[in-house]
Description:
Ferritin; two-stranded antiparallel ribbon; 54% helix; globular
Amino acid sequence: MKKMILPPPLENSKQISEFGMQRRNMLKFFGASAALVTIGSACNKDDTPASNGGVNLGSGDVGILNYAYALEQLEAAFYVKVIASPYSGITSLETEYLTDIRNHEVAHREFFRAAITAAAASSIIPDLEVDFSSIDFTSRASVLGTAKAFEDLGVTAYNGAGQLISTTGNGPTYLTLAGKIVSVEARHAALIADLLSNGTFAATTDANGLDMARTPAQVLAIAGTYIKTKIDASNLPS
């Protein structure tokens, strides 16, 4: 399998911050979150201890939710930074697109935070510390190249995690929700690809028109370049 190379990880490491969404977006978010919180409340508590000194994602479906939450934290932090300090020459249309993506990623992050808290509050992972020190946020090519890499990675992560969700209990509902989120991530990926090179919106698919999938280990090995917090995924389903 060909390894994805992300652009090198501009700012000093910092804690992922909260972002205040517009009232319109917040109403949409809370409506979606309520649904996941309701189904998440029936999950079992997961008190799996960390085995390598890192932040343990846990096991079972809660572990998979934490895994997705970690990735959404990373994406949200990136787009918050992009909009807070736009790259040189950014157009009004690009600003609109990237602001919408930021709002989606922040909503996804809060969606998982609410769900995991409802399912097993003591098992939710903390806010992760990120390091974007080698991304040039003043450069369009650097920002959009990183955005594309993050979005493509997110799609392959959800594709790979789907088979790890249980087929009993709330598992099927989680799988449906994951499908709804990965479809949004794929729209982001297609848009960013087209901004970089018109007509390349589906260039990541194989001969059958399918996107690839990655295991959590493969995804975290790539994303780890930008996450300072050590993550232990050893107890995730496989």
